[in-house]
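re: that chain from earlier
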Amino acid sequence: MSVNNKIILTLCVASWLSSSRAQVFYLGESTGLYVGQELSFFIGGNVKANGTLENEGLLELYSDIDFVQNTSGGNLTLMGAADQNVIGQNLTAGLVTLRKSGVVHLHSNQLIAEALDLQSGIFNSDADHQLVVSNGQSVTGGSSDAHVSGSLTLQSVSPNPLRFPLGIGGEYYEELTLENVPSGSSINVLVQRPDVDRLIPGDSLIGLADEVEWIISRGNSVAFASVIGIMFEEVDLETFPHQNDIRADKYVVVIARMKQDTLLYSPTGYAELTDTDEVTYGTLFTESAIEIASDSIFLALGKRPAANGPYFFVPNAFAPNGDFNDNRRFRPFLEGYDVHSVDIRVWNRYNKEVYRISVDDPNLSEVGWDGMHNGIDEPEGVYYFSINLESEIGNFSKQGTLLLLR
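^ sequence. v structure.
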């Protein structure tokens, strides 16, 4: 049935197309296709929309669709087991629902959707073929089996967090969240495998995982500060391509940021790590807000020495000029209990004492060797130490070697 060359879709037409999955649905140049409000229209075969497409209801697409000159797709559900191509230029859509076991490949410079629902399947998007959600807070779903692979741009419409359900080729799920994003901000996050040659840890990090990195870029909006959260999985946080010689009895996973001036990664600060085995998966938040300004922000996952609860340890290396405050002085760590006294002694390789302190009721964060002797920096290298500590839970002693890093 047609009126003025416009096809009015009815349930009988939709049923006919549902039984013709292998066929190509071709919309001639002089023909218009209209889907009314509250109607759903399923197309099993490939779609070539040369004519005018007006979708006020829902298009359920099982195979490839080429919008040709059409720029508005309306509400779309992408479904089926096979891989699927979405082709066009400057595309817009309403709610885009991903419900398939295959992969969707975007062949348009961009697809701007009002909302995104990731139920199952992978949506491939990159810098040249960008998926944009104009109501960034409307993104739902997301898992290792349902995510955007590569790049996702979200536009904030409220102060609520922006959630980027990203992955890499269906192998990993590495979700990132940004809090306190101002309304009107446009934020792009790209997740990818990093170039290991530039995964260089600063002197306060043990090393950096080489499976994944996140790159955050801000569009034409004001700078803001945001706490960053990362949900990661299938990440190796025990072996690293580049590793510093810093050892401790206790470590913590951190979000690390690359400094633009040195190209070295340093910790952003540690707030909490939950739902984790501390090696391959977990949910991690930065301790404080990170400024999202004009420069792109490169993030990775790393490990650094840390104390957690009533745990006594002594690092075997420290860096007086390092990025991490707790590693700028050589000292013992004992968190959670009162310390009655501490005695720290350090000798150089010539058995000359270069540091000693013996103090009662100390604040451990304020004691320790800063790498100087008589106001002069001691050279980088190996030193020897002895530490004796008395606390409310007992006495601790440790002797050994330490490495001073410059």
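Residues 191 and 214 are 5 Å apart (CA to CA).
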